[in-house]
Amino acid sequence: MAESGRKGLLQRLEEGIVLVGEGYVFELERRGYLQAGPFVPEVVLEHPSAVKELHTEFARAGSDVIEALTYYAHREKLRIIEKEDILEPLNRKALELAKEVAGEYGALVAGNICNTNLWTANLTDERRAEIRGIFQECVGWAVEAGVDFVIGETFDSLEEALIALEVILAAGQVAVITLAIMTKGLTQDGYTPGEACKKLQEAGAHVVGLNCARGPKTMLPLLAEVVQSVTVPVAAMPVPFRTTLQEPNFQTLTWQPEDSVEPCRCFPDQFESKLCTRHEMAEFARQAAALGVKYMGVCCGGSPHHLRSMAEALGRRPPASKYSADMSKHVHFGNDPRLCQDYKKHLLSDFEVSSQK
Fold first, then answer.
1. Are residues 319 and 335 in the same domain?
2. Contact, 301 vs 241, CB < 8 A?
3. Same domain for 342 and 193?
4. Domain residue limits at 104
């Protein structure tokens, strides 16, 4: 819970939009610290300084929340890579790193639980208890670490999201629950985003919404439905990729290499041609805010520069904005009278040659 005198999540949401930087696993994979495929954040124990630096970069970019890197740091994922022995130390270290950076920047610290990949239709009581136990372990460590709230995210079934919510509320925590909506536009158990979020609100969630899977273009229409269906604050955490009506989630995105007849799947490490610019993410922030979204940021694939531009689009100037572009002194494009004008002339002549081709 928030320390005495420090505004908690719900108070901050009453006063305005809360920005949240996520996407750690994809960013750390790009930096060479995490393996695509398993996506288990062993980096927390192997290279904690890399995690702390990324938390810091997101804080400087304007994140109001530092989320512990415990996404996929649960028993089922660690069982698959045969490393259940690092489950507790990984969670505790991730929470410690998040708390350190949150304290430095006056941000809130969030615990995190996520999809277990164990949900199936016609879930048995035994499997349901297994899922609940996975959440209880991770939430327990988050509570012991003194988090301000707990995020439950990337659920593609309402039932698993409700189990996560039950565990978070039983621990006395503020709950942010977000769903990952795949190609058909429904949860795996057949609910529209609006229907599912309404049920989550009715079950006690403090914030509901969508994260991951969809980029700005294909998430925005679903957000409009969610905003109309609930009265609690709505969350929007898209992946920063150019998803389309034909390829609505990032797992289905493809690209066409010059040397191949068949298109190639982008997921998990060929997204460069589909990455949204910082300006596209800024426009998403403006559009989401106009819809009434109160909790927003970036998910898988997001980088601090995306969040900085979102913050600036909302009228903020976080520490990293000190280094936002100022082209007035650029050698070719600047207008500062102290610049040597010959370089601008050279560039203009290059443009003229290029336009004649």
1. no
2. yes
3. no
4. 9-325
Kindly indicate the confidence band of residue 105, based on its pLDDT and cuts at 50, 70 and 90: very high
Please compute the mean of the pLDDT values over residues 181-195 and round it to a whole number. Answer: 97
Matching residue, tokens 């970069």: 57
* Residue 219: predicted pLDDT: 98
Taking CA atoms, 93 is separated from 68, 105, 140, 305, 339, in Å, by 9, 19, 14, 26, 50
Q: How far is residue 218's CA from residue 174's CA, in Å, rounded to a whole number?
A: 28
CA distance 123 to 175: 24
What one-character DSSP code corresponds to residue 269? T
How is residue 167 written in tokens?
Answer: 């565990």
Q: Is residue 4 part of a domain?
A: no
Q: Are residues 91 and 234 in the same domain?
A: yes
* pLDDT band at 74; cut points 50, 70, 90: very high
pLDDT of residue 200: 99
- Distances from the Cα of 162 to the Cαs of 128, 153, 256, 292, 322, in angstroms? 11, 11, 40, 24, 42
| Domains identified in the chain, total number | 2
pTM for the structure as a whole: 0.94
How big is the chain, counted in residues?
357
How is residue 297 annotated by DSSP? E
Token pair for 351? 């443009």
Same domain, 246 and 332: no
Tell me the pLDDT tens digit for each residue of 236-248: 999 999 999 999 9
- Establish if 334 belongs to a structural domain: yes
In this structure, the answer to whether residues 195 and 53 fall within a common structural domain is yes
* Beta carbons of 82 and 34 less than 8 angstroms apart: no
Please tell me the predicted confidence (pLDDT) of residue 332: 84
Report the candidate in 264, 266, 324, 271 with the shortest Cα–Cα distance to residue 302: 271
**Domain of residue 172, CATH code:** 3.20.20.330
